[in-house]
Hints:
The protein is 79% helix and 0% strand. The protein has helices spanning 10-27, 29-32, 36-63, 68-101, 117-127, 131-138, 143-149, 152-169, 174-195, 198-213, 217-245. Helix 3 runs antiparallel to helix 9 (174-195).
Amino acid sequence: MKKFKLHKQLYFQVIVSIFVGVLFGHFYPEIAVKMKPLGDGFIKLIRMMIAPIIFTTVVTGIASMKDIKEVGRIGIKALIYFEVFTTTFALLIGLAVANFHRPGAGLNIDVHSLDTKSIANYATQTATFDTVNFLLNIIPDTLVNAFAKGDILPVLLISILFGFGILHGGEKTKPFVTLFDQLSTVLFSIVGFIMKLAPIGAFGAMAYTIGAYGIHTLIGLSKLLADVYIASLLFILQRLLTLVIF
C-alpha cells in the first residue's frame, strides 16, 4: 500500500501556491502584477483543449449508438432534462445566491483599471443580438474555422453532424469510432499534464490580483468562493429532491 503524501496532491499544491501568491502580491506588488501571464497562459492551455475534447466525446457518443432513431430519442430526452431540470434551476439558484449575498459588493475597484479587451467581444454581441444572426453564426464558414476560433456551438454542430455521418455509414465507418475513442483518451491525458501546471497558474493569477487591487480583495473573493459552494450545495440538493419526486 502506497503511503499518502500530502505535498504531492494537486489540491494541496494549489492551496500553497495561492497562499504564496497572496503574500507575494501584498509585499511585492510591482513585481506581482508581472505574474499575470502565468495565470493567463494556464487558462489558455485549458481553453485550447475544450473544442477537441467536445468534438471527440460527442462524435464517439453518437457513433456508438445502434441507430439514428435511438440518438434522436435520447437527444430529445437529454435536451428537455438538462434545459428544464438542470440549466434553468442552476441559473435560478445562482441568481438567487448572488443577489442575496452580493459577493462583488465592497471591492471598490476602479473600472478604468480593468482590462476591457477580454469582454469587448461579448459586450458587442450582447448589444447587437439578433436571433437569425445567432443561428447563422452557429454554422461555421469551414470545418477548420470552428476549431480555429474555438467557438463551442459551431464545434458542437460539426460534432453532431460528424457523429451522424459515422453512424449512417454503418460497418464501413466503425473504425472511426475506435479512432475517436482513442483520440479522446489522448486528449484527456494531455489535460492531465496541463493540470500539473495549475499551481503555477494559481500563483500567477493570485499574485497579480493582490498586487493590482490590494489584499482587501480577498474578502470579495472569499465571498465569491463561499457563494460557489453554497450554490453548488443547493443545486445538488435540488437534483436529489427531483430524483426522489420523479
